[in-house]
Amino acid sequence: MVQLSPMKPSVAKLHSIFKLEAEGRYENRAVIGGLNRLLDWWEAEARLDGLSEEFIQLVRSRLRDYPRLSETSRCEILQGLHRRLVADGGAPEFTFPPPKSAEEARPTPAEAGDVNYRGSRDRASTADQGYPRHSSRSRQHAEAFKTEGQPPALDAPVTVLPHVGPRNAVALERLGIQTLRDMLYYLPRRYDDYSRMKPINRVSYGEVVTVIGTVQSVAKRSYSGGAKPATEAVLNDGSGTIRITWFNQPYVAKHLHNGTQISVSGKADQYLGRLVMNNPSWESVDREQLNTGRIVPVYSLTANIALTWLRRILNQVVSYWAPRLHDPLPDSIRRSAGLLSLNDAILQIHYPDSWEQLEAARHRLAFDEIFLLQLGLLHQKRNWKSRTGRIFDTPAEWIEGIMQNLPFSLTGAQQRAMEDVRLDLASGTPMNRLIQGDVGSGKTIVAALAVAMVTRTGAQAALMAPTSILAEQHYHNLLKFLAGSGSPSGDGDEGSPLLQPEQIRLMIGASPEGEKGEIRAALADGSIKLVIGTHALIEDPVTFSDLELTIVDEQHRFGVEQRAVLRSKGTDPHLLVMTATPIPRSLALTIYGDLDLSVIDEMPPGRQPISTYVLAPLERERAYRLIRSQVEAGQQAFIIYPLVEESEKSEAMAAVEDHSRLQSEVFPQFRLGLLHGRLRPEEKDDVMARFRDGEYQILVSTSVVEVGVDIPNATVMLVEGANRFGLAQLHQFRGRIGRGAEKSYCLLIPDTPDAVENERLQVMVQTNDGFELAEHDLRQRGPGDFLGTRQAGFSDLQLASLTDVPLIDKARRHAQALFEIDPELNQPEHQLLASYLDRFWGGKGDVS
């Protein structure tokens, strides 16, 4: 047999690892990913050291199944291998402690609930060493640490931790970390893969690897003419050497000494033909590796917080508390959904054993987010449905009379939406319905019919729009439909309109105060049956005699509180909200899970499709020629500019400059209006009204025109910087034109002739279907464009993607199944889940 003495690097590493594993009481934590992982790199190094093949195979056979063994078997195996190291390799003697008993593995009451770490000398000593090391991540071990509910210590402030004083606490608070629980859920923003270990002589230029070796020399150097210090070390692992340099880190020299064994992770480089590493992460192999030799988490930082310090503190908390968490998900759901336990998910999200385990951890935590979101929305919907709403039972013959007197036929989608509304109004519970339809699909007529169904019995209705100009447009349309000379009536008599003109009023911010007072009085005494307006409707002095229907148009422009205030003007009135933003069904069912959904996905017959073209920046003059020809023919045009910078001031200045150039150089013969976000609301309304009335022939605008008044005379929409907008938003712009009988054109000009951007914009050329475009947008840009002000619950999503349709479907399916069994989560096995749900929603009330 080949003698292993004197002790070689591969023997020394094996001795250090065995000793570290024994001190951790055989929890399989001495090597990242488990002791079996050291076989990935140790065998090659052992052969380079000349160890016998017999001994190498012995180590392989003993450690290959190490993770599946009991702690007692692990102890016996390591003792046997170490005896060979002592006898043949010159390793020093070491007494192996026994595995933990069942009593030792169980947390004491103080560990489960006491947060005063500083008050216990033993606890402080353990914490200084980095807390008890990660357990083997088996379900049995996690179960051993479970307590009745979650440990109350998780709500303790971070200052209970050793080495975290008030100054550190202030810095951590800037990261959103105030309690130990916050630390568990402070997730990495990315990961560096340092899991690839190699002997130094097999490292190639450009590789990101980990090498383990002995420090041969350490020296302080300087660079930049002596102005900046550096630490330089030479590392040897028996197969070769590599020079390591830490620039501007002189303190590293204090911690490195000749003969020290360290693990180094970073990118291999070359200098004068020699292998080097610059500014790598490093650690002593005698300590648990947090920064090298594994997939390493990288966290977002703030001033006065160093990454290595934050990793160490987070590791203390995660290592100690993650195994002690009680999983709020019932075992049946976890098994059916194929999810990791919460204990393993928290451990793996911070320090993954593999990329596969990291993905599984992300999937589990993302599932939790969507699951809790769905439970909250289902609870909100149930609460709404438990209320009592006035019954409006509309006779079928009355509806038939209305339909016969309409000057047009409703599309099938409009009829289905109207029937949904009719059934809601007759149900005895308050309607809570979202009507989703493309621009021009005919949502307003469904809202008008809802108003007619309610006001025919003498009740009142209110419609709130986001802008005065849009409110004014609704007023004129509803006045014509409900009270015009040709308006339909339930009895077929065209001389008897559904409402009288004086029963329909408009109240906006610009309304004279005297007129507002008159409207308030008429609303209070019930003589006004329908009021249309803006935020003016929810001002305190506005009271209703009998408000039974509230309609909110472009509802994503309003906050939750504003919608709630409007509803509070009545006693559980029926609620109808509308949006012209097509939203993919998967997303709509998620973000509007508390609302019943009606989709109007057909366009009224006779509306011409809009021809859309993508032009290169150099073809801009072609667009200008088309605008000139259309305006000279009596039509109007929009020219839209993107929000170039975040501030409204920058947006306005860009629009102002281009408006000036276009007016003086390109279209001097025409009148150009200017609309941007810096204008006051009344100024915006004035500009849009002038454009609608033909005073301006071309409107230069930023994205504020996305939702606006109909301009039937507008036939051209030119969008500059089109690549900066989402497809759904571009579709909204396109919906501003084509409202009349003339052929209309949408021209998209990206900032650059970039092929990828042009390919994305080509989807606009291929389809006028807003729902198809929304699906593209969701995949490419994410859900942000669809959320608007509806942020309740969504701001808490760290990992879940609203584009992950399979995950959403799975979480919603399990949430609905649980909700049917125990909607109030009153059963004992659901108590912890109920507390998680309360914490997730954070007291957010009405979300509709």
Explain what you see.
- Among the domains are: 1-100; 190-298, OB fold (Dihydrolipoamide Acetyltransferase, E2P) (Beta Barrel); 396-427 and 442-579, Rossmann fold (3-Layer(aba) Sandwich); 611-767, P-loop containing nucleotide triphosphate hydrolases (Rossmann fold, 3-Layer(aba) Sandwich), CATH 3.40.50.
- 41% of the residues lie in helices and 15% in strands.
- The strands form 4 sheets. Strands 11-12-10-13-14-9-15 form a 7-stranded parallel beta sheet, with helices on both faces. A 6-stranded parallel beta sheet has the order 16-21-20-17-19-18, sandwiched between helices. A 5-stranded mixed β-barrel has the order 2-3-4-6-5.
- The chain is built from 31 helices and 21 strands.
- With 848 residues, the protein is an alpha/beta fold.
Number of strand segments: 21
Structural class determined from secondary elements: alpha/beta
- Biggest β-sheet strands, sense, barrel: 7 strands, parallel
Q: What CATH architecture of the domain at 396-427 and 442-579 would you give?
A: 3-Layer(aba) Sandwich
Shape descriptor reads elongated
Distance between the termini: 78 Å
Determine the mean pLDDT: 79
Share of helical residues: 40-55%
Strand content: 5-15%
Q: Can you identify the CATH class of the domain at 396-427 and 442-579?
A: Alpha Beta
Widest β-sheet, arrangement of strands: 11-12-10-13-14-9-15
Radius of gyration: 35 Å
CATH superfamily of the domain at 396-427 and 442-579: P-loop containing nucleotide triphosphate hydrolases
| CATH fold node name of the domain at 396-427 and 442-579 | Rossmann fold
Counted by DSSP, the helix tally is 31
Unreliably modeled segments: 1-5, 106-149, 644-653, 787-793, 843-848
